[in-house]
Amino acid sequence: MHTDSSTSGIAAGRLSGADLARNFCDAHPPMNLAQARIEADRCYYCYDAPCQTACPTGIDVPSFIQRIADGNLRGAAHAILEANPLGGMCARVCPTEVLCEQACVRNTQEDKPVEIGQLQRYATDHLMAHPGKPLFTRAAPSGKRVAVVGAGPAGLACAHGLARFGHEVVLMDAQPKLGGLNEYGLATYKTVDDFAQKEVQWLLSIGGITVRHGTALGREVHLDGLCAEYDAVFLGLGLGGVNSIGIAEPQATGLGNAVDFIAELRQVKDLTQVPVGRRVVVIGGGMTAVDAAVQSRKLGAQSVTMVYRRGSADMGASTHEQAWALENGVHIQHWASPLQVLSENGHVSGVEFERTQMVGGKLQGGGERFVVAADVVLKAIGQTMVTQPLGSALELQSGRIRTDAQGQTSHPKVWAGGDCRVGGRDLTVEAVEHGKVAARAIHAALGAATLNA
Q1: Residue 11 maps to a domain
Q2: What is the dihedral angle through the alpha carbons of 398, 400, 402, 404, rounded to the nearest 10 degrees?
Q3: pLDDT single digits (tens) 193-233
Q4: Euclidean distance between CA atoms 164 and 372, whole angstroms
Q5: Does the pTM of the predicted model rise above 0.90?
Q6: Exposed/middle/buried for 60, CB within 10 Å: 0-12, 13-18, 19+?
Q7: 3 state DSSP class of 20
Q8: Same domain assignment for residues 247 and 201
Q9: β pairing state of 396-397 and 400-401
């Protein structure tokens, strides 16, 4: 988002450094030992536990909680990270309220599930603070080399799995830091103390993974060249494009993309230097919209309004995230669609909306119009995959890469996972599972290739 000091409605330092430090501290502080033990004792340790089934990575939840109760925190971390090598980050950002915790049998007993996410964080944080000897070691070198393009959750999980199997992995990413959305796409208050990079360093510590920063598919490397140089390729490209809001967008100061705002905020060292509008409008209803809206409030914006074209039940953000936005002073306006972004003298001044309604199962404008004044307008209506670097090498479906259940694409040497793959749900934990499953499939394919050689 372009800003300048002459824009009266946009300014840095709306709050003191102390206020900003409080606003951007850990949104959900970790448990202490006593709390963890009390919570672990609430688990029924179910056989064929529904919480494990609800976890996309299949973490053995009763097992790791039992180990916490027994004081075996290293064993608990092993159970978590064996299934999910990014279990620390997932404990922070995974929507547990609609996955494992929603499936917890305690919901039917007392309407309060075991706090699985917090217990998972407790165990993994303890390991990060007291790593000791490596949890996992590499198998004997296989002599095979695999390129992993994209170091987000899917690529990191795949690289770690392949390294454990003994393969040499070259991990490539366009950004200066690894982590993908874990580093650039999450609200600052969700992952404090540079946790994303701490987790990356732990993951790389297994060895056998060479990192190449500043390397993008279609720019420094090309798919045909990778297929010729490596025994297999995994693509964890994510979604690099941003959807248009479908109306004319003036060249005005204060109009920007929510994903860029979030990424920039994650990288700044001094929050008092971050400019924010006095009145902010966020167009969209997903997790990105909530993160942008809440952080705008925490930076000192006086009013922040999220506007979504449908009702609350249709929003991409969970009910938990919606409640978090409201708790932080964000106003959510449902059933409204943008008509035009208003500007004065080259600066955003507001957005004109039309109220919407469902007619015969279709969303339609109702005719009534209204304006929300704004100094800053952030677009958060989803992202699209940039397919140009792929050329015609892979089969696509609905603008994403088509794969089988193991992540293999239409090219026999290429696998894909995460948001770039058809069916991705924009969940960190699902991307991790894609990478994990693909690593196993690649390992099996490389073994078969060796036997057939």
Answers
A1: no
A2: -120
A3: 999 999 999 999 999 999 999 999 999 999 999 999 999 99
A4: 54
A5: yes
A6: middle
A7: helix
A8: no
A9: antiparallel
